[in-house]
């Protein structure tokens, strides 16, 4: 499979490029980045050579340019970039009427599996208290993490009456109908998410621990293998896990 890597000199794009070079069934068709990185093209439209698929780890401001290119060339695309505006998301959805598009805010297959398990435990472990603790490195800008919210959303799919309590503090007794979400910041932690389900007599804790950001690139490669050959449509991790 010949892969165009959009954002090839970024933190994720460079990890992805290494993983593709090591894969038996993939090769890099072209790299794209606006930085002038050696051997790369400045924008997708500059490359019209052979390609089977695009994997995108870039910046959401490039959404329209990228989607126009993929539609024009009828190339499937795995969109790993996050932060799209509502208008940009609409552009991606429109494109997916003409080409296969895979999009997930978290490309980790392990996190997707964790979310599935969380949904099931929340449904079947009746009336339990659900608490989420996420831990990340000290450079992280946002709290709680998007993944913590994603896991809380998974629990709420089973128990829609629950609401979120972010960072409980002060005179704040726990209410039965809440999911407590707390953030810990220390050292160089890549990302750990613990979801606790507690009753008076027992506790289940489900933990996902990321050791290396390469897990996102691994997920992108799995998504590319899944997407290749699919009809036009909008696909996500749930579709990949269900196959
Ligand atoms: N879905 C996931 O699981 C997941 C995981 C990690 C990162 N991400 C997302 O992937 C994206 C890239 O992350 P990163 O850490 O590699 O960032 P980065 O800043 O290290 O790299 C960004 C890349 O995009 C390019 N770029 C910057 N502005 C651009 C523009 N306007 N148009 C086209 N290309 C542009 C840069 O030159 C660079 O190659 C971010 O949106 C990030 O949130 C998603």
- What share of residues are in beta strands? 25-35%
CATH class of the largest domain: Alpha Beta
Q: Quickly count the domains.
A: 2
Please report the total strand number as a whole number: 11
Structural class by helix and strand composition: alpha/beta
- Overall pLDDT: 96
The distinct ligands, each listed once, are: nicotinamide-adenine-dinucleotide
Give the helix level as a range of percent. Answer: 25-40%
Assign the CATH topology of the largest domain: Rossmann fold
Query: Helix and strand string, N-terminal first?
Result: EHEEHEHEHEHEEEEHEH
Count of individual helical segments: 7
- The CATH superfamily of the largest domain bears the name NAD(P)-binding Rossmann-like Domain
Radius of gyration, in angstroms, nearest whole number: 20 Å
Span of the ends, CA to CA: 20 Å
**Poorly predicted tracts of residues:** none
User: What would CATH call the architecture of the largest domain?
Assistant: 3-Layer(aba) Sandwich
Strand order within the widest beta sheet: 2-1-3-4-5-11
Task: Specify the biggest β-sheet.
Answer: 6 strands, parallel
């Amino acid at each position: 499979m010949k892969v165009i890597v959009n954002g090839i000199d970024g933190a994720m794009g460079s990890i992805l490029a290494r993983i593709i070079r090591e894969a038996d069934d993939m090769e890099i068709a072209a790299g794209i980045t606006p930085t002038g990185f050696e051997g790369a093209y400045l924008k997708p439209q500059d490359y019209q050579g052979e390609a089977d698929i695009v994997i995108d780890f870039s910046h959401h401001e490039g959404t329209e340019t990228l989607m126009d290119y993929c539609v024009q060339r009828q190339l499937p695309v795995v969109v790993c970039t996050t932060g799209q505006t509502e208008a940009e998301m609409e552009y991606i959805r429109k494109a997916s009427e003409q080409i296969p598009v895979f999009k997930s805010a978290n490309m980790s297959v392990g996190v997707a599996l964790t979310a599935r398990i969380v949904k099931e435990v929340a449904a079947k472990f009746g009336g339990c208290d659900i608490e989420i603790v996420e831990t990340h490195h000290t450079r992280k800008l946002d709290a709680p993490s998007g993944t913590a919210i994603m896991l809380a959303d998974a629990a709420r799919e089973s128990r829609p009456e629950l609401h979120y309590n972010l960072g409980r503090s002060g005179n704040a007794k726990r209410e039965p109908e809440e999911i407590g979400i707390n953030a810990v910041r220390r050292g160089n932690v890549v990302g750990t998410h613990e979801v606790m389900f507690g009753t008076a007599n027992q506790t289940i804790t489900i933990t996902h621990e990321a050791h290396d950001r390469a897990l996102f690139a691994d997920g992108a490669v799995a998504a590319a293998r899944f997407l290749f050959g699919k009809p036009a449509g909008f696909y996500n991790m749930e579709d990949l896990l269900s196959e």
